[in-house]
Structures are given as structure tokens and as C-alpha cells.
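> forwarded from #structure-qc
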């Protein structure tokens, strides 16, 4: 019997796959948020607003780390 197919390791493997999938989705959202900010995308546009809204909970702890400067 193969150790990777035992009944005790299958749930662990599935849990690992789900965890990596969720982390990959979060990482993709944060990368898109960074790219949109870098390219100065319009935050009121539909796609960028959608990405900003979905990624806000993951970026919120880091938003006030650096002071933001505005040029008028």
C-alpha cells in the first residue's frame, strides 16, 4: 500500500491543497491591487473598484504604515 494514498494522509493533502489555493487567490488579489496602484488606475472604475474592495481586508493592516503625500 502506498503511503500517499492512506486514509490518514488524504485529508491532510486535501487540506494543504485548499490552503495553497486560498493563499494563491489572496496573493493574486494583492498583486492586482499593487499593479493598479502602480499604474494609477481610476479607483472609481468598475474593475479596479472590485479589486480594491476584495483586497482591502488583506491590505488594511498595512495602509497606514507610510505617510501618503499628495501633490495638488
Amino acid at each position: 500500500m502506498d503511503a500517499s494514498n492512506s486514509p490518514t494522509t488524504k485529508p491532510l493533502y486535501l487540506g494543504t491543497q485548499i490552503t495553497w489555493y486560498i493563499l494563491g487567490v489572496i496573493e493574486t488579489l494583492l498583486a492586482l491591487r499593487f499593479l493598479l496602484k502602480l499604474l494609477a488606475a481610476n479607483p472609481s472604475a468598475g474593475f479596479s473598484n472590485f479589486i480594491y474592495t476584495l483586497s482591502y481586508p488583506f491590505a488594511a493592516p498595512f495602509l497606514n504604515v507610510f505617510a501618503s503625500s499628495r501633490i495638488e
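QC bot note: The CA atoms of residues 41 and 48 lie 7 Å apart. The mean pLDDT is 88.
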